[in-house]
Amino acid sequence: MLTRLFSPIRIGNLTSKNRLLMSAMSINFGVDENCCVTDQLVEYFVERAKGGVGMMLVGGGSVHPGGQELPDLPQMYNDSCIPALKDMVQRVKAYDVLFGVQLMHGGRQSYLPQKVAPSAIPAPAVVKGEVRALEIAEIKELASCFGDSARRCRDSGFDFVELHGAHGYLINQFLAPNSNIRTDEYGGSFENRSRFLFEIIEDIQTKTGKDFPIGIRINGNDYIENGWELKDTVRLAPLLEKAGIAYLHVSGGVYGSTELTIPSMYTPHGCFVHLAEEVKKHVQIPVVTVGRIKYPEHAESIISEGKADMVAFGRSFLADPYYPEKARKGEFAKIRPCIGCCLGCIHAVLAKEPGSCVVNPGVGREYKLKDEKLPSRLQTILIAGAGPAGLAAARQFALKGHKVVVCEKKQDSGGLLSLAAKAPGRGELDDILNFFRKELDALGVEIRHNTELSLDLIHEIQADQVILATGSMPDMPVIKGLFQTKMNLVTNVDVMSGKEAVGKNVIVLGGGMTGLITADFLADQGKKVVVLNRKKSFAEEMSSNDRYYLRERLKKGKVVLYKNVSIRQFTDDGVVFKANGEEITFTGFDAVVISEKQSSIRDAKDLEKMTSVKFHLIGDAKSPRHLMYCISEAEEIADSI
Prior knowledge:
By secondary structure, this protein is α/β, with parallel strands linked by helices. The protein has 3 domains: 9-368, Aldolase class I (TIM Barrel); 378-473 and 599-640, NAD(P)-binding Rossmann-like Domain (Rossmann fold), CATH 3.40.50; 476-596, 3-Layer(bba) Sandwich (FAD/NAD(P)-binding domain). Helices cover 32% and strands 19% of the residues. The strands form 7 sheets. Strands 3-4-5-8-9-10-11-12 form an 8-stranded parallel barrel, surrounded by 5 helices. A 5-stranded parallel sheet has the order 15-14-13-16-27, covered by helices on one side.
């Protein structure tokens, strides 16, 4: 039983029904042309409020038009935003949740062309462009903007606000020595660098009253040279408590840091918990921890061991809005898991696209799905292929009441995703497969293994619809000498499945995601690996956060990477190629692993000509792409029939 996690806690003069906080996420949808919230954002929050979380935050609440982090985030800098906010608050608070807004100014990390910051120092990564140093009068004005925005939040009915003082945004930029080299009263000493933050707090309290709770998200460590460190947070925390802050939400990282603010599946669970644990020793107010806390049992242990008072979840609540209620009931296996890929959420958002979720295509579509009706006629659905697309489609069809049968020509389900899960650090890919398997078992969906799609099977079950989720296979390129080489010629599927030995020295042809994780898989076994990528970039289909950690692993494994390669020919034991204007010859290799393109497997579609049953293609069978499309197409086809 999760007794500590689901016990109440005081936050200022409020009480949260449990210790779960849905962190602020800049989701980049649900606002109109004036950045006032729309029904899309309202229903996104209503769905998660229904799920049983104790506290939740609106992300990216901009206090000034010059500090908008991303284009489609809610504004808090104009009274015209209040009516729409009031409607959202009224809808959300019907579900017994404390509802707040995270107030922020992006500073040098804003998407806008004209950026301001404490000092004229550009952001170290992600956001490019020149930065202008703020004048003292402008700093005073921005502190007042935070206060005015907090007043609008209070007037809209929100329970509290959280200041975003972490992740390299404006408040953090004032605090950190590497981004603040001012020589006036806002720079230099610790007291001067923290002055802006305390002026914001004072201005908010003046305009909202001291009973209106203010939390702050602050970095325990910036993880960048000459940045804000844990010793600074420990020094600041008691001062914030004395100033009347209601809680401290301790995170880490900035744009360009060695530990990313949104860590991927390669990062250990609870990667920032130690920061909150240390801060908690120095204050009496509640301390919130965050950072790859995925499993309910882990969250419970953090609270029970006294490492933090509350646990913040972000992406896990994107993946499953009903995570809290399922956890409270002990229904852990029913929680749809975040896999830490960072693709639909932070990667999309930083590309200025609407946020989503690879495992939950319903994110951002809640307002469309709320009135969705069950199909008027139930049908028998035959799905060919038990990879992620096939499993996801089977689940969605079964949830709608259809009879579903899955045929899979292999003895195991999971497809290529189950092989990818064998790579170092990528085992959580299995979590979503296991979720689908358990769901199908509970829904009574039959999976026939070692069974190919056939006319006999279509007739036997009297299928109304056939869904082809037959996946893809590696495509063999035509390169001079490749088929004449004496090296062992294998595919990434052969390697990851353990079917083929490759020797000690290996060439991996292909620098996409599959090529790099295959190289990592081999390097982890102590093999010497060279990757030849004929494209200009590596693993473009991965999120930048996920790719960053994989590239760091490849460095440690001493994998040699070449991109924009022109291959002259393969030899008996090596290859001759051109890269960076230089011709390079390698010899002494044992194997070439083909991991470039994938080809859709559609042989079964020929059966469509022999029957009146309608066939549909989804996932890699439609076109080889990443997991996000596989699952979204699977749910969409089920919703459309």
